[in-house]
Each structure stands twice: as C-alpha cells, then as structure tokens.
Amino acid sequence: DEACARNRLSTRLWRLKRVLEPSGVDPGSYLIASRQGYVGFNSGSDHWLDVDAFEHAASELVETPLGDLRRSTVESFEHVAAICCCDLLEGVDLPWLVIERERLSQLGAAGNLRALDWYAQAEEPELAIAAGQRILRRDPLREDVHRKLIRIFCSCNQRANAARQFEECRSLLREELGVLPLPETVAAAAGISRTTNVSASPPLMEVETALELIESAAHSLGLVVEELDSLVR
Q1: How confident is the model at residue 124, as a pLDDT?
Q2: What is the CA angle 112-115-117, rounded to 5?
Q3: What's the average model confidence in pLDDT over 77-82?
Q4: Quick one: which of 60, 178, 183, 193 is 20 to 30 A from 92 by CA?
Q5: Quick one: pLDDT at residue 222?
Q6: Which residues pair with 190 in a beta bridge?
Q7: How far apart are CA 117 and CA 99, in angstroms?
Q8: What per-residue confidence (pLDDT) applies to 123?
Q9: How far apart are CA 29 and CA 45, in angstroms?
C-alpha cells in the first residue's frame, strides 16, 4: 500500500544519502528534494556518470564525418567503452532495461565500427582489427564486420588470418541462419588468393567452401537475372 511504499522509499533515500553525502558533504550536493515531495539527482553537481560519458563519446565519434575525426576523439571513445564494457545494470531484470541495453549496445557497435574505419584509413590495421573484434564479440553475425576484417587482413598479406575470418563468418551464417555469405563477402574472400607468397602457403579453403562460394555467386547471379527479366517485362 501507499504508506508502506513511502516508508520504504524514505529508508532507501536515507541509505543513499549516507553513501552520496557522508559527513563533510553539504546536503543537497547530489540528492535534491522539494517540499512537494519531488526527489531527484542534482545533475549540476560535480560528478562523472559512466553511461552519460559513454553516450557523449560514442555520439561524437559516430556523428563526426570520417575525414574530420581526430585521434583524440577515437581514443576518448575507446577509453570510456573499456570502462563501460558490461551491459547496463548487469544482473538486474527489468522490462525497460531490455530496450535501453539494446540502444547502448547498438551505439557502442556504431562507435567501434567508426573506429575500425578510421584506423583502417590511418593505415593502422592492428587497431582496426581490434575494433572489429570488439563488435564481433557481442554480435558475431555481423557479416559486414567480418568482411571488413577479411579485407584488412588481405591488405596486410595476412592470408591465413583472412581465410580464418572468412571460414568463421561462413560457418556462423550457415549454422545460425542457414544462409551463405553475401556476394560482397565472397568478393572480399577472393582477395585471399591475390596476396603475396601464395605459392609458399598451403591451400586454405576446402573443396566444400569453394563449392559454397560458387553456389553463393550462382544464387546472386540468378537474382540479378530475375530482376532484369522483371524490368524487361
């Protein structure tokens, strides 16, 4: 009932005040309350909120055009993201948290993707790869990220890593979604054979993989033919 709820709220606020405003801290520095019964956090106080810092750093990174980005912006995001590496209020099961966790997760993925592109453009492949791997740890079915990593590995002549990345992508798509890689991913994987020292390396793709690549390409060509046919009609 309301009386019990108010008593419990008062007890929680008292405990919270003891933590946020111990002896020596002026009352109202962090928790403010009005005579009408409104209670809130003093957002103008000297504080640091992890979620707020994460949103600010990620939004600045994502919204700034790639050509205008500075290293400090990318590194600032990575620093905050490393601190906020867990889900929001991990261990708490409330309906509203599902939506908020997903929103922050998508924002983090967008930030890491922008970091990947910036490092790749700056010719710092190791940092670009690390950014891509952070995305895949949370969402391993991001085929676009697998594709970017394959291309980066190929550009660095890391043929074995490129093939391994493609195989991981292909297996995940087949096992989890029952689909083949997109033609763009197949085209990225085709660059593996064009890297240097090919003759010194053993074959990296099994016959089954090669057949699936052909099947994927054939399927894509079939869709193109159907589209062209519909346009002619």
Answers
A1: 97
A2: 115
A3: 95
A4: 60
A5: 72
A6: none
A7: 27
A8: 96
A9: 6
Q: For residue 140, count other CB atoms closer than 10 A to its CB.
A: 15
Between CA 40 and CA 37 the distance in angstroms is: 10
Q: Is the pLDDT of residue 201 over 50?
A: no
Name 171's bridge partners.
none
Q: What is the pLDDT of residue 220?
A: 65
Q: Which amino acid is at 92?
A: V
Phi-psi region of 37 (alpha: psi -120 to 50; beta: other; left: phi over 0): left
Beta bridge partners of 21: none
For residues 141 and 10, the model is more confident at: 141
Q: How many CB atoms lie within 10 A of CB 30?
A: 18
- With 0-12 CB in 10 A as exposed, 13-18 as middle and 19+ as buried, what is 162? buried
Burial 49-61 (b: 16+ CB within 10 A, else e): eeeebbbebbeeb
- One-letter amino acid at 172 equals L
- Residue 103: is its pLDDT beyond 80? yes
The neighbour count for residue 106, using CB atoms within 10 Å, is: 12
Cβ(73)–Cβ(114) under 8 Å?
no
As a whole number of angstroms, the distance between CA 219 and CA 158 comes to 29
